[in-house]
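User: I need a structural model of G-protein coupled receptors family 3 profile domain-containing protein from Zoarces viviparus for a docking pre-check later this week. Nothing fancy, just the predicted structure tokens so I can convert them on my end. Input:
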Amino acid sequence: MLPYQMIPQVSYASTAPELSDNTRYDFFSRVVPPDTYQAQAMVDIVKAMRWNYVSTVASEGNYGESGVDAFIQKSREDGGVCISQSVKIPREPKQGEFDKVIRRLRENPNARVVIMFANEDDIRRLLHAAKKANQTGHFIWVGSDSWGSKISPVVHQEEMAEGAVTILPKRLSIKGFDRYFISRTLENNRRNIWFAEFWENNFSCKLSRHAVKKGSGLKKCTNQERIGKDSNYEQEGKVQFVIDAVYAMAHALHGMHKELCPGKVGLCPKMDPINGTHLLKHIRRLNFAGIAGNPVLFNENGDAPGRYEIYQYQIRNQTAEYKIIGHWTDQLHLNVRTMQWPGGVRQIPSSICSHPCQAGERKKIVKGMPCCWHCERCDGYQYQADTYTCKMCRFDLRPNVNHTGCVPIPIVKLEWSSPWAVFPVLIAVFGIMATVFVVVTFVRYNDTPIVKASGRELSYVLLTGIFLCYATTFLMISTPDVGICSLRRIFLGLGMSISYAALLTKTNRIYRIFEQGSMSVSAPRLISPASQLAITFTLASVQLLGVCIWFGVDPSKAIIDYEDQRTSNPVMSRGVLKCDISDLSLICLLGYSMLLMVTCTVYAIKTRGVPETFNEAKPIGFTMYTTCIIWLAFIPIFFGTSQSTEKLYIQTTTLTISVSLSASVSLGLLYMPKVYVVLFHPEQNVPKRTRSLKAVVTAATMSNKFNPKAGLRPNGEAKTELCESLETQTFPTKQTYISYSNHAI
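Assistant: Understood. Predicted structure tokens for G-protein coupled receptors family 3 profile domain-containing protein:
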């Protein structure tokens, strides 16, 4: 006899994946495909429906647990499918066990699809629990061949099972078996010792009268009952495989007999006893058409090829049925257009862990769940580089609207039409017109006493500086380039330097004249017009020298600053086209002018005791006080807005207005009164007698001391007297009393 381990077996129903292990079950073969093929078919169905988040339910035991394990393994190998819950139904479930399973399946509402490897009874009870939990239409069931196309699991809960996708090994109903089986009776099938028991169960009757109990509802069998006529009959799904298994063993024995016992009838000595290993070889070589026409063959592990039909449980016109929607033979063939889901809808329901991220969002995968992710917006200046990464845009770029790429940051500059530019330009235009008007008036009345008394040479220099201050506004608003930036460096500080150099020279001269005159009758040095011009230009040249050194160290250029207006909201971000002049460089550029201004203010304070009717000490003093107030207000505004997104506009406008106001103060306080007298009161514009320096200074001092109202004399007599004498006479080398020729104060 053969050892039992070496007896070849051909199974018609065993689908457990473990039986494919040829090292343990090397003599085992089967005409049904293993559950690994079924699991692969189910994975393919899930992926074809674009489901990636499913739960599994298995009946405790080899079939259910192995089937689910195979599904999980295949889903991991193929990728793209994640398991939400994996639930096992005990062999002997307690009361409420199926309600508990449904509660677990509901924990993740996104996982609507449930993969089931369970026996009929567990399927029926699970559907009932789902119906009781009012989950009709929520779950999409994908059942294994244990569900297949059976009616019993879905009886009285058709709506709960609607849309279920089930799978069955491909098979055909064997008509010859139906004819044979329905013809069986108790008389013609006595050889089957279990047939009598089947008869009683099938027809709900008892063969023995004594077995019939009152109230049991059973009757005595009459032997006139007929299968399929007096009872429901449905061919068992595995009939085809039982027949194929029998034929497989028969074909193998026949082939072995032809090889070992050619031409002989019955067993020959070579087949007595049968060599199990030899018989196994013949089984594995088989390839014949089975009872349903499908080829019967085995691979090296003894498994039959996977051939499945895909069913869907549908309700049409209140009639429920299993409808074939596709098949699987190594790959899935599915007719999606014939599928119908709970409620009769055609749209495929979703069962996904996370919805696709929108444009500009990256996926942050949940650890251990590659199908689940959180969508994180690429915010700020980030853009979506790929599915999982956000990157920062380059410094001169910003993300587009949906953050899928970067676009250039718009470039801005101070436009002529901007309100920030219109007001400074208006001030500058009126200032230039007023300056030109004063210059024309002074040229027209150049030889009149008032013009002479104002110190013509320094007046024209001062007016030139005022004109440059106004003209600076146009340079500050013009589009920056190398030329404009160079002119800004030169003229922004030059106009103010010329103005304050001239005013400083004037105040210094007044101070020295009265200081010297109170102590001596000799004239101070360097008070002639030529000397005054030389001092003024020397002071102004210091500014030009500094600018030239700056050009040598750092040539001027226009730059685009992407930091000034780099807001937290990229949409508002702008690149600022400006000259390469930092705030510190600007202060250094204006620093020298401010030094001249402060020095001039100091001299204005020192000469505050000079009578108001003498020369321009008082107007210059008022001019410098006002100018200091303007620039004291400028500094906090300028630096206080250094972090503002409107920095370009505020600082430029503040600077240009401050420069223009400084020029306007000088123009208004020093020259407008003279122009008024020249044009509207020519009777006051007449020469007066001249006296010596000592006499004039003494008279001015005493007049201020004993007659405070002396300054009320018409046409500024004392002032013009002093100034005109300085314009009309020359100094001899030595004399006791000096007249003021060509030395206007």
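Before docking, keep this in mind: Residues 703-745 have pLDDT under 50 and may be disordered.
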